[in-house]
Amino acid sequence: MAQEGLPVYADYLTDNYYLLHPSMAGAPDCSQIRLTGRRNWVGQEDSPGLFTAAFNARVGDQSGIGTILYNDRNGYYSQTGGYATYAHHIMFSRNEIDLNQLSFGLSAGFIQYRLDQSSFIADGDQLISSSNLSSSEFNMDFGFSYNLYEFYAHVTMKNMLKNSGVNNDLQITSDLRNLLVSVGYVIGKRSKDLSFEPSILFSRRFGIKQSSIDFNLKVYHDMEFGKLWGGLSYRRSLDSTEFIDSDEEYRSQNLNYITPFIGGNFGKFSVAYTYSHQSNAVTFNNGGFHQITLGMDFSCRKGKYKCYCPWVD
User: The domain spanning residue 63 has which CATH number?
Assistant: First the structure.
């Protein structure tokens, strides 16, 4: 049930909103390149790992384009994907320095699923073979964004089409739709050194009927060389899972992640580090979730919006 395309972590908080929302392609003032590398459960053999490369740019006055490549590996299972994006931006403001923009974006691409069974031992089980299974699937993401000065809102439906991957078991869902709803607002003005950005992200995965919500707080500090920022994210599942404790009693728990992050923009370059800690009674491993993001901005348009809106300005 984990075949959901590009996984949703806290990448968007490290100046990488396009990775989640296709409508953000071309929304920033500059063309952007963002590279991320993530490793879960560091120290464990064959632990999950994710690499993404994202590019987006403005084309003309109202269009944006982008592309995303990623590789997600989890033990014997892996998926490699590539998406191309087109976005359309509509400005409602009377002046270009006033940010009042509605954006629509559509991403389409292919995902190749692989299951390496070369080391499996069948032991008489006819459903297990030593061959490698692979399957390529087509999928699409669609969404819109609204940016009004220091306020923003995003609504995105990821994986709109059904994908069966390498599974032939009818018990495995092929409904990978994931609805993402995000809103945020920056408190503070340009004249101040510190600005605060509270935000939330709601996720609903329809195939497995699970929901979660992120509560985020990001702090910006303007410097002569650029900008330093950092913050904290708390993710909580809205659905509980039952388990049997050491006293053989049934209990339940909700998924809880605490994710501090820190980064900065140094001229045209950016770098960020993210760490996640899982605070549950029953886990495979509480820590070891590390992620690094590297970025570069170029071909920046002249002029700045009359707002403190770092995600586009």
Answer: 2.40.160.60
